[in-house]
Amino acid sequence: MNTRVQKAINDQILKEASSSYFYLAMASWSENHGLNGTAKFLYAQSDEERFHMLKLVKFINERGGKAIIPAIEQPPVEFDNLEKVFELLLEHEIGVTESINNLVDICLQEKDYSTHNFVQWYVSEQLEEEASARGILDKLKLIDGDKGGMYMFDRDLEKSTILNVPTETNSAK
Ligand code: OFO
Predict the structure, then answer these.
(1) Which atom of ligand 1 is nearest to the CA of 16?
(2) Computed from CA positions of residues 150, 82, 13, 113, in that sequence, does the dihedral angle turn out positive or negative?
(3) 16: CA distance to ligand 1 center in Å?
(4) Quick check: CB of 129 below 6 Å from ligand 1?
(5) Which of 52, 81, 82, 143 has its CA 20 to 30 A from that of 24?
């Protein structure tokens, strides 16, 4: 496997693993603040990021390269409020998009077209994830801390998580 591409994918493994841990910390914080629907959503996001990581690990290994399972920094324990949680999540996803774009660039520079093709899945995934985080943040801004609004928000997020539970056909996500 091209060593520069392999190094860039290994860097991405760390990013996806850190995302998974970051969202796990957010899920746990939400659960401790009575936001059970939000916690369910964030636990599912955390699982999704772990899957993104795993997909990269397998991609490298199946091509005769060597995937590196990285050490992960401890994520925060406390968050100011729920709006802050989703602001951080969006900021984080924007950073992940940048690093996916960088990976695409490296594939093109190295003329590694099969990895380039594989990485396109992450390009579309990032579009979806950023849009979802922006949508949630817009709702939270509208609610502006109103208790009734927060109750409905939490319930709606739980419903959307149940609807998006992976099935046999969409488990490639
Ligand atoms: Fe949302 O970061 Fe993975 O790809």
Answers:
(1) 3
(2) positive
(3) 6
(4) yes
(5) 143
